[in-house]
Fold this protein.
Amino acid sequence: MDIFEYISLIFTDYTIRNISLGTGALGAICGVLGSFAVLRKESLLGDAISHAALPGIVLAFMITQAKDNYVLLIGAIISGLIGTLLISGIVTNTRLKKDAALGIVLSVFFGFGMLLLTFIQKNPDATQAGLDKYLFGQAATLMENDVKLLSIVLGLSLLVLLMFWKELKVALFDSDYAKSIGIKTRFLDSLISFFIVLAIVLGLQTVGVVLMSAMLLAPAAAARQWTNRLYVMLIIAAILGVISGVVGTAVSTTYNNLSTGPVIVVIAILIVIISFLFSPKRGLLMRQILFIRSRKKIEQTKVLLLMYNIAKTHDDVGHPHSNKILNNFQGIGKNVLKSLENQGWIKVNEGMWLMTEKGFNYAEELNKGITL
Amino acid sequence: MTDESKYALNVHDLTVAYDFKPVLWDIHLQVPEGVLMAIVGPNGAGKSTLIKAILGIQKKIAGTVEIFGKPYEKMRKEVAYVPQKGTVDWDFPTTAFDVVKMGTYGELGWFRRPSKKQKIAALEALEKVGMLPFKNRQISQLSGGQQQRIFLARALVQNASIYIMDEPFQGVDATTEIAIINILKELRSSGKTLVVVHHDLQTIPEYFDWVTFLNVKKIATGPIKEIFNDENLAKTYGINYKVTINK
């Protein structure tokens, strides 16, 4: 199947449309809520919660024997929330820092979940229920009802953002100040944490426990590179999340054997790499270019001023001097002389240089500015 | 019994502890209206904790805080807070203007957005601290002194009666320090009350007219002229601290 055939299938094929809409909605939710996780410096929270959800899924199955997704999701939400509470409990009641608390909860819950999972593998019902799909995700199982659920959660989280926008913003930036003007920061924290748990749990079916945190972080981290405004960051993160979801689904469906979750994450990571390299203000590449440019500029200025100080001691400004004079003061590369010549400030000929009138005047202006 | 409501800020019996160790012990503190007061004390004396406990950011074990004779919770709008500059992430995606607008959020309450009136107030505050030309700058592109001015402007927008500031002069250059102290003195002249955690003992007699010495317990509080002396400094810092006072 080629990509054009696929695009037409999005509109005609029921299953493919559901999967695309579902992964797209998931991408948008993760982009928006992930921005909060990133700005709260809780990037690893997503990883801990997604791993913490696993025992909830398995226990929900063991207790109810239900194959119904929603029962399992409720189990995931409960154990995800317990994991979150445990993390904040550890941080407030022990001397352990947040990173240690996250690591403990992640490994203990995931280990317990895996233990239960291997324990029930003997049970043929468990294999049928396909519990192991939650490890790496299986987008193909997305149904119309899942898409509806994802859309409702997306709508709800956008509604909450709109309602509490200014409170969330000030609490996120400066929580002490927010408290001082009477904003209930603990309520807002819990609200956002709850929605993050919800987003993660909904993503488990598609992307899986192991890769879910990438889905939360990648769009947000990429979006931060392109803007310095909070609301713009959220919008860009949502769009990048949708792109990752939809394009990832397309690629995995077009190349038949690739599983969707990992492809979505790879696309998201590609977007992150592109953003970190090429974004105009914060991108590594642009910053390196600007850095090299400004260093060159400084070097040129220094050499030109050195020449100016030599030239002004002569009646004839354009009197030629040996390049060696410059080298005696500082090691000066030929590139610098060449670029100065290109700008018409000096002339270079057989190991000698002379200043043009234009160069002398320019240096005189520079000198005034610098000695001021 | 004096009339309690004449004090702008009245702290009673305040005790705060982290873990098992008391950080503040039985603090009684009465600040009259219209003074510019410094809180001084060594590191770990509980200066920031005192401020945070007054503002309800830090949990108290015991004690009450009254603003003009009424409980703090009812008088929140009369108090503006300038936190330490280092407590926030200055790479946060927002502009100087946006940060100052946050000063109007308390007055607005839930669900309401800043309108033209609030925006004009924010612009005026920016103008006052000399930051109007930088209003659209991303906050990480401001110098330390400029960031401090933005924090001050955010408090000014609140148009409060009491200003509580945590080390507003930390890490700022001489120009900003003078600009800030001039604004503080101007606020005092218009009848506002200011409580400022301050570290530089040399500048206290010049900048402030009231002082509180703090080291877990309150050592002394009162007018600079009466109590800013070697005896109180020695009690607070535990060493003989000789300071020249220009009276």
Q: What stands out?
A: Strands of chain B lie at 7-18, 21-32, 36-40, 62-67, 70-71, 79-82, 162-166, 193-197, 210-215, 217-223. The CA atoms of residues 71 and 168 of chain B lie 26 Å apart.
